[in-house]
């Protein structure tokens, strides 16, 4: 009795789509001290203090700075955390 063997086929790779990127934008304000803002950016955006200082300085001089790029839900969470600390932040979709 002979058995037929089927040709081996590799399983299809799962179809994945990258989530669209969103940016957490820190806006300049005249209410918070720079040291507090730098520490908050470092903590919430999880960046080194030097980078947090650069983001803070950019927001101060240019009016706003992107402090984090991530997927929508995480961006919204981090934005809310900035707002809970008394800082002005928004979420913007990153275009192409």
Question: Brief description of this entry?
Answer:
This protein is an alpha+beta fold. The chain has one domain (22-93): Ribosomal Protein L30, Chain: A (2-Layer Sandwich), CATH 3.30.1390.
Distance between the amino and carboxyl termini: 61 Å
CATH superfamily: Ribosomal protein L7/L12, C-terminal domain/Adaptor protein ClpS
Cα-based radius of gyration, to the nearest Å: 22 Å
The CATH C-level class name = Alpha Beta
Percent strand equals 15-25%
Number of strands: 3
* CATH architectural arrangement: 2-Layer Sandwich
Question: So what's the overall shape?
Answer: rod-shaped
Structural class, by secondary structure, is alpha+beta
CATH topology title: Ribosomal Protein L30, Chain: A
Q: What series of H and E elements makes up the topology?
A: EHHEHE
Report the average pLDDT across residues. Answer: 91
What order do the strands of the largest sheet run in, or round the barrel if closed?
2-1-3
Helix content: 40-55%
What count of helical segments does DSSP give?
3
The biggest beta sheet reads: 3 strands, antiparallel
Q: How many structural domains in the coordinates?
A: 1
Outline the low-pLDDT stretches: none
């Amino acid at each position: 009795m002979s058995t037929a063997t089927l040709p081996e086929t590799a399983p299809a790779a799962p179809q994945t789509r990258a989530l669209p990127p969103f940016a957490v934008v820190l806006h300049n304000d005249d209410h918070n001290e720079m040291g507090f803002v730098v520490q908050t950016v470092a903590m919430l955006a999880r960046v080194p203090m030097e980078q947090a200082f650069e983001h803070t300085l950019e927001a101060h001089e240019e009016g706003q700075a992107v402090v984090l790029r991530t997927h929508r839900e995480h961006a919204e969470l981090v934005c809310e955390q900035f707002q809970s600390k008394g800082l002005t932040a928004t979420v913007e979709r990153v275009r192409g």
